[in-house]
Amino acid sequence: MPEGDTVYATAHRLTEALGGVTLVRGELRHPRLSTADLAGRVFDRAVPVGKHLFLRFDGDLSFHCHLGMDGSWRLYARRPPLSHRVRALLVTQRQFAVGTSLVEMALVATADEKKLVAHLGPDLLDPNWSDDSLAEAVRRLTADPERELGQALLDQTVMAGVGNVYKSEMCFLLGVSPFSPVSAVDPDVTVRLARKLLRHNALRTIRNTTGNPRRDLWVYGQHRGGCPRCRGQVLVKKQDTRVTYFCPRCQPGPTAS
User: What is the CATH number of domain 4-117?
Assistant: First the structure.
């Protein structure tokens, strides 16, 4: 599932493969962008911002997209089969970059990128992360102390990058139910944990939140195998429109709102 670490790794791969190279073909398969032709443009680099991705080209032009629930960018040495889900195709002399199931597609001036992500909270993988970034994320997280923690962690206007996997894993590591209020946790510890987990996994092929190479995740998707800490049952319940995983023994608090 694409989360902040997935977008970060995607940007890294695209920049390594295409950075500084001229496109021989560039198509955006969206009704509003179907007439855009990126052939002849030099790919500069890809820049992640939370779950958003900007692909920058020469001439002050950026392609903005979001991976949504199941979007991806893949690289091929030869022309791959192109399904109806392909939304972007960038081709160089040596590479085919294929963007599939992308959403929120737009072409904008590079100088205007910030307008599209101005609503986001601090980006947890921002290379310029600072004490001010931490303080702002804490301020936004604690703005509604009675809000369910799981809801707040998924809110990209609080801090950008946490998705459903990290939400469940963070609540387990914090020792509280995802249905507990934000006031049940130390906000500074919570933001630091979010950044630590995403940074640890930014360029990993498989996410790992346990520190144990034999077990990648604590509770997310583990409802059949049980809690690795207490051997109790891991519950899976709806929280708003998403599911959440938690161990009621290790994570005291409400089990649903």
Answer: 3.20.190.10
